[in-house]
Write a structure and sequence with these properties.
The complex is a heterodimer of chains A (75) and B (323). In chain A, 40% of the residues lie in helices and 23% in strands. With 75 residues, chain A is of the alpha+beta class. A four-stranded mixed β-sheet of chain A has the order 2-1-3-4, with helices on both faces. The longest helix of chain A has 12 residues. Chain B has 323 residues and is of the alpha/beta class. Chain B has two domains: 192 residues, FAD/NAD(P)-binding domain (3-Layer(bba) Sandwich), CATH 3.50.50; 105 residues, FAD/NAD(P)-binding domain. Chain B is 24% helix and 27% strand. In chain B, strands 1, 2, 3, 4, 5, 6 and 17 form a seven-stranded mixed β-sheet that branches. In chain B, strand 2, helix 2 and strand 3 form a beta-alpha-beta unit. In chain B, helix 1 packs parallel to helix 2 and helix 4 packs parallel to helix 5. Chain B is elongated. In chain B, 47% of the residues are buried. The chains are: A alpha+beta (75), B alpha/beta (323). Chains A and B meet through helix 1 and helix 2 of A and helix 3 of B.
Chain lengths: 75, 323
């Protein structure tokens, strides 16, 4: 299960979403700019406030870290 | 051995890549990403020929254009970490895959955000301290924030924050804002914005996250504290010239000094273009043009090496051939 915490203007969020789309990996997007609960959840999970935060089966990746994403998904 | 290694994938590096491609020289372009510093821009409205484009889309068009040339290899994400002089050229070490050799080198590594270098800045990076208002402004909904810097970048950050933050302090070290008058007007229109002049930020404080800043008010020499939850640092940029700083001449700001006709540095065989150089105007379009000039100069340098004895090539290095 992949969750991405995003803001609409964050370019690395776009890049992360495209990464998953290109590989047909389903993800849930939570827009922290309009969803206060999602923002709190993101800060609690990652201990920081920058987007994107990517939650892959409970493993938290801060930023669009392609190598870490590939490793978590065993790509 | 490559004919040319280009470091950087911003407008300068990408434009150099396209021209190297058209000259059919064996080229390697090493970059962490395409698009340069404006990749995070929401809207670029001065890239000539396109009224409006996002930073990400510009990055894609640059990448696609370079990829159209088979003789240009691309190492992405790649980071050049050191440059050494070797026989007949340069050895460029990268963070992951070892050393690449090239007869010429084009440094188009751009700039990066200048940091405050004050206590708390590192500790709270991502925990209230941000260097990207476009990215992070929405996270600061209903919060008090500070923008450090009263130039254009600072004012634009304030504009990004106005729809979200409840109060925006602009902390400006000088007696008045230095950004464009039009942008100043727009910022001053918002009742959320408070401008604090003559203020030198000294410390970012907090526990797990930012809870405030301390600054020196130079008008009364008092240290003052502002409680707030976000700090956006917008105090200009520094050139990414470290990897060649012992080889080529740089100025006080660390910018590589180039011949503005050719892009040649003080070291024959090394060229530079864009924001890493002492070019006055740090602009995408100018960087692209500079990148082209530097690539063509590298090409001419290669022709000279081919034509002439090594000793003679050294003497004429960096100057365009008359062909």
């Amino acid at each position: 299960m992949v969750i991405i915490y995003t803001t609409p203007t964050c370019v690395y969020c776009q890049m992360a979403k495209e990464f998953f789309k290109e590989r047909s990996i389903a993800y849930e997007e939570k827009n922290v700019s309009s969803d206060k609960e999602a923002l709190d959840e993101m800060i609690q999970k990652s201990g920081q406030m920058g987007t994107p935060v990517i939650d892959i089966d409970g493993k938290i990746i801060i930023g669009f870290d392609e190598a870490a994403i590939k490793e978590s998904l065993k790509l | 051995m490559y004919d040319l290694i280009i470091i950087g994938g911003g407008p300068a590096g990408a434009a150099a890549g396209v021209y190297a491609g058209r000259k059919k020289i064996k080229t390697l372009l090493i970059t962490e990403s395409f698009g340069g510093q404006s990749i995070v821009s929401d809207s670029i409205e001065n890239w000539i020929g396109i009224k409006k484009i996002t930073g990400l889309d510009l990055a894609k068009t640059l990448e696609n254009h370079v990829r159209a040339y088979e003789n240009v290899e691309i190492k992405i994400p790649g980071k050049a970490v050191a440059v050494k002089e070797i026989s007949g050229g340069w050895g460029i070490s990268t963070d992951k895959d070892g050393v690449y050799q090239s007869k010429t080198l084009l440094v188009a590594s751009g700039g990066r955000r200048r940091r405050l270098n004050i206590p708390g800045e590192d500790k709270f990076n991502g925990k209230g301290v941000s260097y990207c208002s476009t990215c992070d402004a929405p996270v600061f909904r209903d919060k008090n924030v500070a923008v450090i810097g009263g130039g254009n970048a600072g004012l634009e950050a304030a504009i990004d924050l106005i729809p979200y933050a409840s109060k925006i302090y602009i902390i400006n070290h000088g007696p008045k804002l230095t950004g464009d008058p039009l942008t100043q007007e727009e910022v001053k229109k918002s009742p959320k914005v408070v401008i604090i002049n003559n203020a030198e930020t000294q410390k970012i404080i907090g526990d797990k996250f930012v809870s405030g800043i301390k600054y020196l008010d130079k008008s009364d020499n008092q240290i003052k504290e502002l409680p707030l939850e976000g700090v956006f640092v917008e105090i200009g940029s520094v050139p990414n010239s470290e990897i060649v700083k012992d080889i080529v001449e740089t100025n006080k700001a660390g910018e590589i000094i180039v011949d503005h006709q050719t892009g040649a540095t003080s070291k024959p065989g090394i060229f530079a273009a864009g924001d890493v150089t002492d070019e006055i105007y740090k602009q995408n379009n100018i960087s692209a043009g500079d990148g082209i000039a530097a690539a063509l100069s590298a090409y001419n340098y290669l022709l000279n090496i081919k034509k002439q004895s090594p000793a003679f090539a050294e003497a004429t290095a960096g100057k365009p051939s008359n062909e």
